[in-house]
Amino acid sequence: MAEPSGNRAATRSPHETGPGRGHWGTDLPGARRLDHPGHLPKLLHPHRARHLRRRRHRLALALAAGVAVAVLAVAVPAVVVWRSADDPAGQVDTSQAAATPEGTGGASDGEPAAPAPPSPAASLPTPGVGPAVPVGPAPHHVAVTPDGRIAYVADPAAAAVVVVDTASSEVVGTVPIAEGPPQQVAFAPDGQRAFVSVHDAGSGVDAVAVLDVASGTVVDTVPTGRGPSAAAVSADGERVYVPMSLGAHLDVLDGRTGAMVGEMETTPNPRAVVLSADGRLAYTADSVADVVSVLDVATGGIVATIPVGRGPQALAASPDGTRVAVVNQAGEDVSLIDTATRTVVATMPEVGASPQHVTYAPDGRHLYTANSGDGTVSVVDTATGAVTARVATGVTPTSVAVLPDGRRALVTNRSDGTVRVLETA
């Protein structure tokens, strides 16, 4: 992939403020030693000196005994570890217990270990139906922050991104997009920024608006090729890959500065992109040629072209990275790609009328399709390929996003101006 030359820093100034950008290693002043004033010599009783000598002798014996106990305390675990290493039938290896006191979690230098992320809830084959939240005239796409607290809803008709609190299911803000109608949203992995594709064929507007999540403001706008669609952000936040649905390439942005750094050629009309688990490959859906292209992000070359169903519209990578689900709007089915063999290994038929979007439950047991033609979201068992439920959500559902804990999903209903909440676990 070729990157344009020149001073990119001069075209987009980096945003280096906010959480995680500051100097976390600030030195703190050390503890001070207190200076004690000297004492005048005391006058002792004639026999006091002998008593003091005896007391000092007893103190020395006690100190020696304490040292011996400490040496044994260190030596005994060492002997146990050595014996367990030689004995294949040893019961317990206590080396970790000896090196790490209980409750430290293995952290060194007194630093607490980072808590492990909680496991997602087990997804249900039939979700419960929650409230429909009015958000605007025509909500088109929804994405959830990595911590699951906030959802961004792109509403092209309102020329705004609507902010929804996922805990209360209430609208808590609106971010106007002056550049044009927002289409899709993608968050950086740290949740500090959102990348919003902006497209208006009538006025010729094609751009990515960069939003600061903390302040809820647009901090940059990057012109792109024609028809920017839903982007994918690398795991380190360094690169943003934006498919050009009216072109034949991905635009590549610097995720920190917003600068355009290059492009990668694809088959024509890529409508969606997802990244492999290791970030080395990008999968793009071509709705005209009915294929998924696999790109090497380091070289920009196409390494595979995979035939799928008719009219692929959206992609989703499974939580374990072994599958890519492709929802085919014209075929009304889902193709499952094995990422190791780069072949379609299963097709899930008749998921719903005119499906436009697909996503996985965080536990990987189910996937969900937004079926704009019949007002439903289908739940598909990923082990059997069977549709376990078809849930009515509203008029013209166009996207579905699941919270990271797997307990709820949000569905945009473009024709009734709502976001439906589903209880998925």
Given the C-alpha coordinates, what overall shape results? globular
What integer is the average pLDDT?
81
Percent of sequence in beta strands: 35-45%
Strand order of the largest sheet: 1-28-27-26
Total helical segments: 3
N- to C-terminal distance? 42 Å
Q: Which stretches are poorly predicted, pLDDT < 50 over at least 5 residues?
A: 1-109
How many individual β-strands?
28
The SS-based structural class is: mainly beta
Largest sheet: 4 strands, antiparallel
Structural write-up:
- This protein is mainly beta.
- The chain is 11% helix and 40% strand.
- The chain is built from 3 helices and 28 strands.
- The strands form 7 sheets. A 4-stranded antiparallel beta sheet has the order 1-28-27-26, with no helix packed on it.
- A hairpin with a 4-residue loop joins strand 7 and strand 8.
- The radius of gyration is 30 Å and the shape is globular.
- It starts with 7 loop residues before the first helix and ends with a strand.
- The N terminus is likely disordered.
Features:
globular; about 40% strand; disordered N terminus; about 425 residues; four-stranded antiparallel sheet; 28 strands; mainly beta
